[in-house]
Each structure stands twice: as C-alpha cells, then as structure tokens.
Amino acid sequence: MSRSVRVVWDDALTSYDFGPGHPLAPVRVELTMALARELGVLDAVEVTGCAPATDDELALVHTRDYIEAVRRVSATGRPDLFHGLGTEDNPAFTGVHEASALITGASLAAARAVWTGEAEHAVNVAGGLHHAMPSAASGFCVYNDPAVAIAWLLAQGATRVAYVDVDVHHGDGVQAAFYDDPRVLTVSLHESPQTLFPGTGFPGETGAEGTAVNVALPAGCGDGGWLRAFHAVVPPLLREFAPEILVTQHGCDSHALDPLAHLMLSLDGQRAAYAALHELAHETAGGRWVVTGGGGYELVQVVPRAWTHLISEVAGRPLDPATATPPEWRRMTKERTGQTAPLTLTDGRKPEFADFSAGYDPADPIDRAVMATRKAVFPLHGLDPLP
Ligand SMILES: [Zn+2]
Ligand SMILES: [Zn+2]
Questions:
Q1: Average pLDDT estimate for 55-70
Q2: Boundaries of each Histone deacetylase domain copy (predicted)?
C-alpha cells in the first residue's frame, strides 16, 4: 500500500473571519498555503478538499442547542452572549456556522484519511480550534475541530487516541471533552494559567486516570527549556499509552514575537518540536498522525513560516531552515499585509536542550513545572516521576 500524506485545503476555509482588527486573521493561513506552494512543499503531498461537518458530526462534541444557536447567529449576524458569540474574542458574523463547520469538516477529512489508511499522515492548518466548549464559543473558537475529530475516531472504534497540544494556550476544550474518558490521552504544554488565557491547565488537572496531562511553563521560557520539558513528559507518556492514532495541535503562538503570549520560542525550536512529534507518531502510533494548526497571531513573521515547516515535516521532506523565501511570496505578503516579508525560513537559532534524565534542579522554574506534571500523572501510568 502506498503511504501518502494528505493536506486538506479549500480556499473557503479563509471565510472563518471575525473581521478587521481581530487577531485570528485568515490571511495567516492564506500566506501559509502560498508559501508552502511556492516552495514546492505541496508537490510532495496530496491536496484534497473537504465537506462541512454535518450537525450529527458536530453533535459528537457539541450540544444540539448550541449548534442551533450558532446557526441562528450565522443567519442573522446577531450576538448570542449566552453561547459566547458576540463578545470581543468571538464576534458574531453571518456565515459563522458554515465557516466553522467547514474547518471541522477539514479536520474530520484528515482524521478519516488516516483512520482508513488512505493516508499515513494528514494535516489541516486551518484547524486546531481547541478552546471551543460543548455549548459555548471561547477563545476565537466556535466548533472544536480536534475534539470532534477525536470523538469521530472513537465512534469508529478507536480505543486509544492521544492528543498533544503545543499551542501556547491550554487546550482546555479538548481536555474538557474527554476529561473522564480514559480512551483519550490529552497532553497540553502551555504558558502557565497564572499569566495567560484561559486560566486552566494546572498540573493537578489529571482527568479520571491521569489521561489529562498539563505542563504549565513559566512566562519567558525559550527553546531550550520548552524542549527539555517536552522530552521529559511527552515521549514517556506516549510510549506507555501506546495510542492507535496521534492527533496534534500546532498553535505557533509560543513564538517570542507572538503578540498575545509570553513564551520565547523561535521558529527553529518549533520546528524541532514538529520533528519530535513526527518521530513519536511513527514510534508510538504506527505512523497514524493527524495534524492541525492552532493559534498564532504574528501573521507575517511567524505563522506562514512555522506551518510551512510543519507541512514539510509531515510530508517527510523537512525544509532547510536556511531556505530563502520566494520573491513571489514576498511580493504577495507585502501586497496583502503591507508588511515586509521575512527573507529566510529561520530565526537563526540552534535549538539545544539538556535532557531531564541527566538530573534536574529543584530551584529551576522549568524543572519545577516538569516535576509537578510528572508527580501528578506519571505514577498513574506506572512511570517513575523521578528522572
Ligand atoms: Zn493559542
Ligand atoms: Zn512520517
């Protein structure tokens, strides 16, 4: 069987648009796909469209009452504050149901392709709307596409699904959807809830059987600290859990330039995380890997380059960080945003980290965060929290 990689894309995915001035501007995915296309990244994959998620599919996670409410807002453009629509974070707009259902449909298409074996890996860069709750919009997210995709996998008979969320914000909506369900392991690495939205994601939130895992990193954490924490927590848990399929959310708002958060990663550090997750998908999940985008609000300097690296990694042909950005893409970026595009795919960093197994410093804030998580969940998985 040929093992292909699928990128789910439809230009209509850019209709998920909360309007001028909102941080989640669809130009970020438009510029991502343009950069990937110009660099030939899409030549190595199969690009397919998608259908919007049906109400029955959305109802795998969301209440019927909420879906009806989103449809009403969608038809009238009028706010529904009870369901979180019409706030500063989640403005009401006509067409919001259709735009949101299409994003969920794209993640479902990715999950379906991987689950049926049509593709080994599949990616939806427009997805990763991890804050949406069963009956409310939250944090720029209306329908929770990763949660719906995971619920769909369970409905197909999957019994062990792992979800790893590297967005700078806690993956609260996905955690909430499966908090009491030991079939789903959710792991979120994020900036501490003490300094960042949504205010959850403490290590003590462990789910029923330690299947909710939270690594709450201190503001200011850079590549070395982030990768040290990732490697101290994620690989041992994935090896122990042995998922049938891995779903990952790749919000790139952990970057130092992101205007909404306070971690200090570089593109080079984020790229190292993508490569690590790719390796873990093969090692622990038989290569079955569903990939989504997520947050990321530095629309020109960060998102397009981060997710072009992501697609190229998923495609098995990771781009050299020194690669120059194509002139045509630079022109398009200037025209669409008025900003000067970056010239290469790197921030010029060499991400290195010291492995936790060599010992830790109880006074170091990153090591304290790691130990809090390991102490909270490792024993529930039969793992020793001490390195
Ligand atoms: Zn985020
Ligand atoms: Zn692969």
A1: 98
A2: 22-312
Burial class (CB in 10 A: 0-12, 13-18, 19+), 261: buried
Å from CA of 44 to ligand 2 middle: 12
Per-residue pLDDT, 149: 99
Ligand nearest to the CA of 114: 2
If you measure from the C-alpha of residue 166 to the centroid of ligand 1, how many angstroms do you get, rounded to a whole number?
A: 9
Ligand closest in space to the Cα of 289: 2
User: In which element (H, E) is residue 169 found?
Assistant: none
* Phi, then psi, of 217 in degrees rounded to 5: -90, 145
- What is the mean predicted confidence (pLDDT) over 274-288? 98
In the set 131, 231, 255, 309, the catalytic residue is 131
Q: How far is the CA of 128 from the centre of ligand 1 (A)?
A: 9
Is 70 exceeded by the pLDDT of residue 36?
yes
| Count of all residues that appear for the chain in the document | 387
User: DSSP state, 89?
Assistant: S
Alpha helices in the chain (DSSP H): 27-38, 55-58, 64-76, 96-115, 145-155, 172-177, 223-241, 267-285, 303-314, 327-337, 365-377
Please indicate whether residue 131 is annotated as part of the active site.
yes
CA of 35 relative to ligand 2 center, distance in Å:
21
Pairing of strands 289-292, 245-249: parallel
What is the C-alpha to C-alpha distance for residues 250 and 216, in angstroms, rounded to an integer? 16
DSSP assignment letter at 28: H
Q: What is the mean pLDDT of the chain?
A: 97
Average pLDDT over residues 106-117: 98
Residue 290, CA distances (Å) to 148, 208, 319, 344 in order: 13, 25, 20, 27
Give the number of whichever ligand sits closest to the CA of residue 316. Answer: 2
Evaluate if residue 2 carries a pLDDT over 50. no
Element (H, E) at 342: none
How far does the centroid of ligand 1 lie from the alpha carbon of residue 82, in Å? 23
CA distance 141 to 84: 10
